[in-house]
Amino acid sequence: MTTKHKVPRLDLPWEEVAPGGVVTAVGNSETYVTGTWRTMRPIRDAEQCTQCLVCWIMCPDSAITVKDGKVDVYDYVHCKGCGICAERCPVNIRQPHSFTGKLGKVIQMVPESEFEDYTW
Amino acid sequence: MVASKYMPLDGANAVSQAMRQINPDVVAAYPITPQTAVVQNFSQYVADGIVNTEFIPVESEHAAMSACIGASAAGARVMTATAANGLALMWEMLYIASGMRLPIVLTVVNRALSSPLNIHCDHSDAMGARDSGWLQFYAESGQEAYDNTIKSLKIAERKDLLLPVMSCQDGFITGHGVERVGLLPDEVVQEFVGSYDPEFYLLDTDHPVTMGAWDFTDYYFEHKRQQTEAMNNAMPIILDVCEEYERLSERPQPILDCYGMDDAEYALVVLSSTAGTARSVARRMRAQGVKVGVLKPRLYRPFPAEQIVDCIKNCKAVGVLDRAISFGAPQGMGPLYTDITAGLFNSGVSGLPIVNYIYGLGGRDTTPPMIESAFADLKIIADTGDRGDMVRYLGLRD
């Protein structure tokens, strides 16, 4: 993960916290890792994706990125696995999903337990 | 020392005059008896262009404090006023103001909380907010209310404090009672309060910040610990500002008003205007050779436990007058009694007979004979060694 912010410590003693909880590093919420909250991970079959961009529009965490008008990568550092992208994907795939091997949507939710490591 | 100009003013006007001289950036308020005149008079100054204040008439007290918080967070110097159920309506916002460390000054013209509906004086409103993280001053007179308003602002804005302040005075008794009040010259007040220069404010586009954000389970506790530390360390700051103001005005600005406490055998501790009645009785009794004393704390939060204990520890018997009940506290004792007895216990002072008198609820008049009866009780307690009832009532029909 690249970020312009210094990742804040999560173990500051009380004397050192900012009075009133004021946050001075603008936009540093991106340093807060919420990817670990996931129990299910959305996996996209890139070949069968029609690039409708509905998943990008619907993601509440802005965790789906788009480059040159096409879906790029999923930000698994922040994806909380809510499943909205999979739910709202309008495409019923013709071929089995490249990861799950099942029919269904282009985006399918896979249990986190199937992954060895968080890969980002 | 600067000469004050004396005018006949009621307590509400004394505060609106102080507000005029301070000329805050924003006032957001909602009317409620007996506070209304504070903001109503101030709004006339706004209409007449005497102040530059942005006046926001809001739809409720909750909205008033919300608007004050928003304005203060944005970087404005903010003041407002309320009473009783108005204060109660802004309850959640009080905690937000103190949690966000915003130096808002709120005048509370003490009035009984409903129900039953009663618009007259008691301390249930401000006492109900005693855990909210706001400092609390109680003014016995219009003069004290004027002085406290100005001091409160300077105390709140101290960079090493940054906590909001509630400046209280008795509804109707002080609020509507006209007295001789000395006002410092406008420019002296301006110089005393100076300008408000917050380190962090939302309108600082060069250094954008987020305020009032989410705290997870791993941080809330630390922020609260820091907040309580600020309150616990407020005393030197308060004393500092009081001393400066005293030099300026040549009016004493103690945190405890002591009458006869040097050698008092029987003492009453009482907040706000009833202290005047108690003192007049005490003066008469002293003339008859009875060693009585009256202790009136002007500061309630942070609680000046050490100073109070020091003042009463050599008495033979003490009565603490509470103009509010803390329902469900042991035998329904009041808040001042709770804090004083805790202070006594924790200071190691033992064996001092001390009783609680609930008085004046809903504006019930507290008369000199009632005060005399309390002093008489204390003598009996001291002579017999029998404390009797812990919680008593003054002026109640039974």
Q: What does this 3D model show about the protein?
A:
The complex is a heterodimer of chains A (120) and B (398). Chain A contains two helices and four strands. Chain A has 120 residues and is mainly β. In chain A, the strands form two sheets. In chain A, strands 1-4 form a two-stranded antiparallel ribbon. In chain A, a hairpin with a 2-residue loop joins strand 2 (64-67) and strand 3. The longest helix of chain A is centred in the middle third of the chain and has 5 residues, at 54-58. Chain A is elongated, with a radius of gyration of 17 Å. The model of chain A has no long low-confidence stretch (mean pLDDT 91). Chain B is α/β, with parallel strands linked by helices. Chain B has two domains: 5-249, 3-Layer(aba) Sandwich (Rossmann fold), CATH 3.40.50.970; 256-394, Rossmann fold. Helix content of chain B is 41%, strand content 19%. Chain B has helices at 11-22, 36-47, 61-74, 84-89, 91-99, 124-128, 142-157, 186-193, 220-232, 234-249, 274-287, 305-312, 335-347, 368-384; strands spanning 5-10, 26-29, 54-57, 78-82, 105-110, 135-139, 165-170, 178-183, 256-259, 266-269, 292-297, 299-301, 317-322, 354-359, 391-394. In chain B, helix 1 (11-22) packs parallel to helix 7. Chain B is globular. The A-B interface holds A 10, 12-15, 17, 19-24, 26 and B 99-102, 162, 200, 207-213, 215, 218-219, 221-223, 225-227, 229-230.
